[in-house]
Amino acid sequence: MTSVTLRPAAPEDEPILIRSYAAARAAEMALVPWDDAQKESFIRAQFFAQRGHYQQHFPGAECQIVLVGGEPAGRHYIYRGDGEIRILDLTILPEYRNRGAGGRLVDALIAEAAQSNKRLRIYVETFNPSAEFFERRGFVKTENDGINFLMIRSP
Hints:
Elements: E1 4-8, H1 14-24, H2 26-29, H3 36-57, E2 62-68, E3 71-81, E4 84-92, H4 101-115, E5 119-125, H5 130-136, E6 140-144, E7 148-153
Parallel strand pairs: 4-5
Antiparallel strand pairs: 1-2, 2-3, 3-4, 5-7, 6-7
Helix pairs in contact: 1-3
């Protein structure tokens, strides 16, 4: 299998971060009657709003670039708090999906959480098929607000 590594995101990584965000919202964007410029404007605005939210509410969260075979393949936001590790975002670009990169990253977090006796949690949109991916790894849906499932894996 090709190597999967992480490196801290730098200012020059903004294009890959935005592209990863856009990939996560692609299904939604396919439903709106906007032209490409409108979609791009919306995606950029939402990306910056999300980044601001993470910075405000999860100070110290790590924003990393996922590398598959040394190539930028997605983004990984992790917050390590008291008693828990939160996966704020894990997005693999479509052309790198289904190669095991996401699984390897989540499995490493599961091992870290078990070793530190912390729970691992993530919010997954109710329509997102990745909920099944997390369930296969022992996460349990604990809340449903109509938009997101809160999924937790206890140590």
